[in-house]
Design a protein that fits this description.
Keywords: DNA-binding, Phosphoprotein
Largest sheet: 5 strands, parallel
Shape: elongated
Strand content: 15-25%
InterPro entries: CheY-like_superfamily, OmpR/PhoB-type_DNA-bd, Sig_transdc_resp-reg_C-effctor, Sig_transdc_resp-reg_receiver, WalR-like, WH-like_DNA-bd_sf
Number of helices: 8
DNA-binding region: 124-219
Helix content: 40-55%
Distance between the termini: 24 Å
Order of helices and strands: EHEHEHEHEHEEEEHHHEE
Radius of gyration: 19 Å
Domain OmpR/PhoB-type: 124-219
Number of strands: 11
Modified residues (4-aspartylphosphate): 51
Structural class: alpha/beta
Strand order of the largest sheet: 2-1-3-4-5
Amino acid sequence: MRVLVVEDEQNLADAIVRGLRRQGMAVDVSYDGTQGHEMAMVTRYDVVVLDRDLPGVHGDDICADLVASGALTRVLMLTASGSVADRVEGLQIGADDYLPKPFAFDELVARVQALGRRATPAAPPVLTIGDLVLDQAKRVATRSGQPLDLTRKEFGLLEELLKARGAVVSSEELLERVWDANADPFTTTVRVTMMTLRKKLGDPALIETVVGAGYRTRPPQGSPQ
């Protein structure tokens, strides 16, 4: 899941970023509305965690522009005011959810995860192919009942490929969905991570390379999809 945090309180923003990354999300951050607006309009994020009172471009304007663009991005709006009137106004602008400060971090994570599921075509919480089982909520994967010791990036690659249900996913798409804006698009990061993932998955192979196009999952012969 790709998330953008736009929050001018830098310590709070950094804490949110660290926490979401620990949950396996690819997270970018902006500390002002002007840069945050540009990032939100250029990159396809699943969720934008958006402070309402921002310097530069106001959070309300960022939210309104995202809605007007037709993007599938979901907006979780943060504000220091918890009044009912403010919550109603934020939702009327187009926010998908609203969280007053201070908030419990576990609640923020749960709301971001819920919004992320709404930002992409619906996928079951547990993804399977052959004898491989990946539980998106628990962040665990097993093969033949044995747990797989995957890094966050390996898990993210496998999750994106399984969600594609056999369709080809390009290296560029995987880089965009699993890594953040700091990733160099000209590196071999995806290829190297894919190599280690395949080794951990073992045989028979579940991921195939489509030359010049990307990667896709393929169930072993005789196995269920």
